[in-house]
Specification:
Length: 436
């Protein structure tokens, strides 16, 4: 039997596993001294010093030694602090990585990031030896028994996660799915930023996509300009804390105080920039409709005495609404729209105050996105071709495809550069009648 004192073992700095549960080590140490002893020796390199497999056992043995307790292996009592080991033949690095990875993943001892880095390292070493090796073959080497058909994607997913280890939202992800969603969001944002900048630099239409805080930008806009304002401001309901949207990136505080101060500031400015005969459509939470009614009525708007109800379409492609407390309460499946008049502008036709059948035709990735189809439904109630329309909280930019469909001239405002670029990417987007 080969034994070594635990303090003499060299633990390489690039070991896959970095985190160890104190409870797990305590239980393992108790197992070592309970009569069963240590069942499997640790594995060292051919130098008889460098650890390959068994860091948990080594750390548990250190606990036993600190408590003055010897352990047994194969019926023999070992000197205190000593642990049995097997010398690994002088194998290539790729086999050492595979041995350690298999040992840890079999016991589910690695964190997501540790396993991802180990799989990526194994893939790189094996591909250096055999460039034509497939992901399926790699997974069969790592998990030779009962390999699921989906494991060819596991190599790809793990190497992708390892590649983005420097992203905090990936490094701190609690699951592979959460990490992959964070990577996808980042890639989509980068792509949208590039596309938005490209479209903006070549855009020759009549729309205006403005960057800045709505409170500042509105002050620069001319008075009496816009025939209709259609917008979706923050709701003041803490949407950034909802469990169903925590994985999405809210770039603004959604507390009530911020919401009320913001809308109180912009209400008179919206009244000023609206034409003498104008309509306002403002999305809001049902709990705050009466607050907004008072704010906008006070600055001169003639607010309709009941909200318009937008019943969100149901289905995977259309979004199901937000579930703030999915285990305790119903899903929110409708929003309110405050409707107000400046002057005495007439509507184009009599329409119901409940909107349905407005599917999500474009999924921009904005956490509070409204479909362009619901903007069309509202704008076509009030506008004529050629009218100027305004969205001071443009978000994902649904005002632009809606304006293109109705032949309107739209101005959108975003304070966040990523949202600004996202809206810019839709300047030339059209929504067709078949989408409604």
């Amino acid at each position: 039997m080969k034994t070594i004192h635990y303090s003499a073992v060299i633990i390489p700095p690039d070991r896959q596993r970095k985190e160890f549960s104190a409870e797990h080590l305590r239980n393992l140490a108790d197992d070592f001294t309970s009569g069963y002893g240590i069942l499997h020796p640790i594995v060292l390199r051919n130098d008889g010093l460098t650890l390959v497999v068994g860091e948990c056992r080594l750390r548990a043995l250190a606990i036993c030694a600190a408590e003055g307790k010897p352990i047994q292996h194969a019926g023999q009592t070992l000197p205190i602090g000593h642990i049995p080991y097997s010398a690994l033949a002088d194998l290539p690095e790729v086999d050492l990585v595979a041995a350690e990875l298999h040992e840890n993943t079999r016991r589910k001892n690695l964190t997501l990031m540790e396993e991802a880095k180990a799989v990526a390292r194994y893939q790189a070493l094996r591909r250096a030896e055999f460039p034509a090796i497939t992901d399926k073959q790699l997974m069969q080497e790592l998990h030779p028994v009962d390999t699921p058909s989906s494991t060819t994607e596991a190599i790809r997913d793990m190497t992708l996660i390892a590649k983005h280890a420097d992203m905090p939202e990936v490094a701190n992800a609690k699951s592979k799915g959460e990490a992959l969603r964070a990577i996808r969001r980042t890639h989509n944002t980068d792509l949208t930023n590039t596309l938005g900048k490209l479209i903006s630099s070549n855009y020759i239409g009549s729309h205006k996509n403005l960057l800045g805080d709505a409170r500042d930008v509105l002050a620069t806009l001319p008075s009496g300009t816009y025939a209709c304002i259609c917008t979706d401001p923050p709701y003041g309901v803490g949407a950034d804390k909802f469990s169903s949207v925590q994985e999405q990136d809210h770039k603004y505080a959604d507390d009530f105080t911020y919401f009320k101060d913001l809308l109180s500031t912009v209400a008179p400015e919206l009244f000023r920039v609206a034409s003498d005969q104008a309509h306002l459509y403002l999305f809001c939470d049902p709990r705050h409709w009466h607050i907004l009614r008072d704010i906008f009525a006070e600055v001169g708007w003639n607010v309709w005495n009941r909200p318009i109800i937008w019943h969100k379409a149901v289905g995977p492609a259309n979004g199901l609404g937000i579930a703030p407390r999915p285990e305790h309460a119903p899903r929110n499946s409708y929003d309110c729209v405050l409707f107000a008049n400046k002057g005495d502008r007439k509507v184009n036709s009599i329409q119901p105050d409940v909107i349905s059948n407005c599917p999500r035709t474009t999924v921009s990735g904005h956490p509070a996105e409204k479909p362009a189809s619901v903007y069309i439904n509202l704008l076509e109630r009030s506008c004529q071709p050629g009218d100027q329309v305004l969205d001071p909280f443009a978000g994902g930019g649904p005002i632009f495809p809606a304006a293109n469909f109705l032949h309107l001239h739209a101005t959108g405002i975003n304070r966040d550069e990523a949202d600004h670029n996202l809206a810019a990417s839709r300047l030339n987007e059209h929504t067709f009648k078949g989408d409604l």
